[in-house]
Amino acid sequence: MAPSSEELHAIRHSAAHVLAQAVENLWPDTQITIGPPIDTGCYYDFLFTKPISDEDFPVIEKEMRHIINQGQTFVVETHPIKDAVAYWKKKGQRFKVELIEDLAKEGEKEVSFYKNVDKDGKETFVDLCKGGHVQSTKEIPADGFKLMSLAGAYWRGSEENEQLTRIYVAVFSSKDELKAHLTMLEEAKKRDHRKLGKEMNLFVFSDMVGPGLPLWTPKGTVIADELEKLAREMEERAGYLRVRTPHIAKGKLYERTGHLAHYKQSMFPPMQLDGEEEYYLKPMNCPHHHEIFASQPRSYRDLPMRLAEYGHCYRYEESGVLFGLMRVRSLSMNDAHMYCTEEQFEEEFLAVTNLYLTYFKLFGIQKYVMRFSLHDPKELGKKYVDKPELWLKTEDLVRGVMRKTGCEFIEVPNEAAFYGPKIDIEVWSAIGREFTLATNQVDFDVPAKVGLRYVDRDGMEKVPLCIHRAPLGTHERTIGFLIEHFAGHFPLWLAPVQVAVLPVAQAHEPYARSVAAQLKEKGMRVEYMDAVDSLGKRIRAGEQQRIPYLLVCGEKEAKDSSVAVRNVKTKEQSTLALAEFIQKTLADITERKLEASIG
């Protein structure tokens, strides 16, 4: 029977201790630090006296299996702070001493050690740990783990501290589960959006432009434009009003909304213009949208007011966390803000949730979870606005709506926006990779702070609630996700090039060019691949570009007014009348079908 999540957590936590013990056995002068379990296994951070490499992995794994097969038991002991500090000082493990001394500053009087003991009762390894372990190392599958990679990691995450060596280990409950995980990782490498983006010529990064600032090629821009077109259509049907706002604003705008107080670390430094105030690059659209709402008197008849923008924003991300399109400094937000009464809140929030579900169906996203992010009362006045009653009231509103949706959601403390609770949507791609793709936030603070008002039925001025939503997130992250999700084989409506036309030889080019012209007249994105290279080479080029359909035109096709269709994704081939091909393909594009009708 497969272990429970708690049991697997204990296996992974115990494997981290086994890793540390193996390293200590092999390199006794190593400083050990911390080693927590993670979603796919565990890691441990070390300070080695001499660098190691992945060439050392086999010997570490061998030592780990030796420890596991000994059946060592985990024994817990509790020690007073003073004795614990003395113990680790004697062992020369200064990072453990620092951890214990910090616990003492927080008021802890004692700490726990976990000792590994062999069958003869001999102590083999000790670690400072709160626990959560298996009884015996034999409960860790000796064929269910694998050392994966090395990484640099600063002690306690601060660049001011020493850089450690982090060893990652994949740990699963069986050999088969480990094998499935490794297979998925290999598939993920093939689907990596950075690799496919380069092969398909979708986007580039330039040292001259700067890190985290993607440049979209013509083909990549097609995808971004199609996503924006989709958003425009969906939002127009739902009664959104489109707006546009500038890329910069005065600092006092963000000071008034609270972003400078709560979000400044993620904003680019200010620009000082001669004779003017400080300006900032726009980190998000909401302060600008608030100004539009406040630009004229509003009545309850105007609500709900839904202002939407595909606005460009800039956020300062540390260079170490930048990752392809997933973490960037320049981003296009599929953003909107709904200003509504409390009575309208439920319907508006439900509508946004249903919009998410429509997008998930369109992209074939079958696995997702909604994270309901709450505030932490201890952080009021620091991380969050200090309005405890409004926090509880708004969280209850969101919780009630989420229960009505029937969607799976989990409550997560201390992850809310500074102005209110939020729903973050985590999705899984076709290979099981997890992404946080979209967000839906409630703002009970900023509208009042910036003076947003509407006149209600009773003639009294009231403050609207504001819902921030971005169902497609940023098109950078969404496109990165979709590249990996579809492995570059986009649905027809989203593909940068939908059809390639290939004459068999130069003699067939007149007919092939006429086919390409007819497809373009119908609005399809077509690439003509002339007969300079061999047909086989051109077919391989079309396959590498993941062009959904390759149309081969030879003597027979010219005679019959047909096309030989190769579906690049399925590898299936068929011959259709040109008119039939056009009719089916246009229908698939118009309806934004997930799968092509041909092949």
Question: Could you outline the blueprint of secondary structure elements for this entry?
Answer:
Elements: H1 5-26, E1 31-32, E2 37-38, E3 41-47, H2 57-70, E4 73-80, H3 81-91, H4 94-105, E5 110-117, E6 123-128, E7 145-154, E8 163-171, H5 175-191, H6 193-199, E9 203-204, E10 215-216, H7 218-237, E11 241-242, E12 248-250, H8 251-257, H9 259-263, E13 271-272, E14 278-281, H10 286-293, E15 305-314, E16 330-340, H11 342-363, E17 368-373, H12 388-405, E18 409-412, E19 422-428, E20 434-443, H13 446-449, E21 454-455, E22 461-462, E23 465-470, H14 475-486, E24 499-503, H15 509-521, E25 526-528, H16 535-544, E26 549-553, H17 555-560, E27 562-567, E28 573-577, H18 578-590
Parallel strand pairs: 11-15, 17-18, 24-25, 24-26
Antiparallel strand pairs: 1-3, 2-3, 3-8, 4-5, 5-6, 7-8, 9-10, 12-14, 13-14, 15-16, 16-23, 17-19, 19-20, 20-23, 21-22, 26-27, 27-28
